[in-house]
Design a protein that fits this description.
This protein is α/β, with parallel strands linked by helices and 312 residues long.
Length: 312
């Protein structure tokens, strides 16, 4: 008896290997996959400006990184004794304006240095809804707990999404020869309303399809795996909105099958085993058994370092 609808994903024309540098941008789903890649021994940089959900702010982020676009004093907002930046997530903050601008500049420098001709960008779009700070008429990457009376809300059209992202991608590709994979976050933005969330996700799907048809990017169907294959609340966290660890593991397996060859999978599994060994908490830390465990951990670590050094 067939109990699920399997989402069969065609093997990618070009593999991802441990030689690639992988920059992940977008919603919290980027964080989930980024952590899997990081544990798997890949060179990753995850959301240097924090979690960002909408296409406009993601396109803006691409410009900040590729063009070294300067953050300005008018980008800073004060809320109580905390300063944030309009184009960044709330985790980019300071206790004075100069502090938050300096932090963002350091993050930008790190991300720009990360780019090279083997950089892969994995971009996860979360929502097409935009929130603008009306006193400055600026789209916010994160609301930073600003008074809702100072915010206006609208949804980007498919055309706007395509134009915004394609322009940023074309500027980026003048800086480095990068490869771009889009995903659409399976996280439901329920606060937008069930109908508005559906409209938003639909706009993202249509826009990403157009970007792929233009030859600017590829698409990995993480959204479809959750909604068409898993289709059950047991694959969600307690809030019933975010995919849980089991769902993320299923998506990760699909990702590996799509983009990794056997040698990359084998090295990835070694790195995962090393991560597990390094995080082992012994019951008897002075025992001979734990000493043997530490020796095996060092041996595996050295073996992995040797393999990675040969590639890079």
């Amino acid at each position: 008896m067939k109990l699920i609808t399997e989402v069969n994903i065609r093997k990618a024309d070009q593999n991802i290997t441990h030689r690639d540098r992988i920059l992940l941008l977008g919603s919290c789903f980027s964080q989930n996959i980024g952590e899997k890649l990081d544990i798997g021994g890949f060179q990753t940089l995850i959301n240097p400006f924090g979690t960002i959900y909408n296409p406009f702010s993601i396109a803006e982020t691409l410009d900040y990184i590729s063009l070294c676009k300067a953050f300005k004093e008018e980008d800073a907002l004060q809320n109580g004794d905390i300063w944030h930046l309009i184009p960044c997530h709330g985790e980019i903050f300071g206790y004075c304006k100069d502090e938050v601008l300096d932090l963002a500049q350091r993050k930008q420098d790190e991300a720009h240095r990360f780019l090279d001709n083997e950089t892969l960008l994995l971009i996860t779009l979360g929502t097409a809804w935009l929130y603008s700070y009306t006193p400055l008429d600026r789209v916010m990457a994160n609301c930073h707990k600003v008074d809702s009376k100072l915010l206006s809300r609208r949804m980007m059209s498919c055309t706007e999404i395509v134009e915004s992202l394609s322009s940023a991608i074309e500027r980026l590709k003048k800086t480095c020869k990068c490869r771009i994979i889009f995903t659409i976050s399976p996280v439901r933005h329920w606060k937008e309303g069930f109908r508005d969330n559906l409209l938003s996700k639909s706009a993202l799907h249509i826009a990403v399809s157009e970007l792929c048809n233009k030859g600017l990017a590829e698409y990995f169907p993480a959204y479809e795996v959750v909604f068409d294959q898993l289709r059950d609340y047991r694959f969600y966290s307690d809030d019933l909105l975010h995919p849980n660890n089991q769902a993320i593991s299923v998506i990760w397996e699909k990702f590996c099958d799509t983009y990794f060859d056997q040698s990359t999978k084998a090295l990835c599994q070694k790195c995962e085993r090393l991560h597990s060994m390094q995080n082992h908490r012994p019951l008897y830390p002075q025992s001979a058994e734990y000493e043997r465990h530490l020796l095996k951990t060092d041996e595996l670590s050295n073996e992995i370092k040797s393999e990675l050094n040969k590639m890079r």
